[in-house]
Amino acid sequence: MDAQKVDMFIMTNAKYFEGHQLTFIRERLLELDDSHWMLLSTTSFQDPSTNLIISVIAGSFGVDRFLIGQVGLGIAKLLTCGGLGIWAIVDWFLIMKLTKEKNLEKIQKYMY
Amino acid sequence: MSQQHKLYVFVLLACSAGYIWLYYHISKHFSNNTIGEVCLIKSFTGFPCPSCGSTRSVVALLGGNFYEALLVNPIGYVLLSGLVIAPVWILKDLLTADSSFYNFFRSTELFLQKPQHYVPLALLVLANWVWNIAKGL
């Protein structure tokens, strides 16, 4: 793919991924052919900061886990008062990383 | 570690925590001590969350008071069946090098990602929450 397009993608979406993954993403995207550009540019990502706010407010209901697609764990969290309150607090610190991993998974299907 | 093993370790740890919590609760229950408040929602807002009272429900179930358990919180039934079934299923999987629990978990997740399946369940939880607030758990 065109370097200019890839750089534009990286600049616009940098906050959705881990900093150390950006170089890898850029390398992989450069190797792709241009037909993937439309799909890639229309992919929507989840904002880690928004998920953190949701986790703080509604983490005890498992909403943060539901949002990143982990329905099973979300239900477990919902039915146990946020894992007796402990899991809910632990997730405040994990949810941003998990969201970024989920975003990477979303574009990985174009990369391989 | 594969996704499957991560899930198995997590579920086994969660179930152990559940059993420890239950043991702690029952021993306190027998000595007539007050029960500590762990629910974040209830501590902050004063209102019970959808699953508040599930420990009391499970304790009632273990004492054979099925109707009382249903009145306190029906979620107790789900939790107790999970606590009993999940570790046995996982141990069976580990012993036979099978992945039936993981496959069941994944297919349930896919099943619940469809709006026609998760909306009724969400409404049930919501109704239970309203009932919890009305009961003043």
From TrEMBL, chain A:
It is found in: Membrane. Its main location: membrane. It comes from the Bacteria. The chain crosses the membrane at residues 75-95. It is a multi-pass membrane protein. Keywords: Membrane, Transmembrane, Transmembrane helix. The keyword DNA-binding does not apply. Residues 48-93 form the TM2 domain. This is TM2 domain-containing protein. It comes from Sphingobacterium populi. The lineage of its organism: Bacteria, Pseudomonadati, Bacteroidota, Sphingobacteriia, Sphingobacteriales.
Automatic annotation (TrEMBL), chain B:
The chain crosses the membrane at residues 7-24, 75-95. It holds the Pfam family DUF2752. Keywords: Membrane, Transmembrane, Transmembrane helix. This is DUF2752 domain-containing protein. It comes from Sphingobacterium populi.
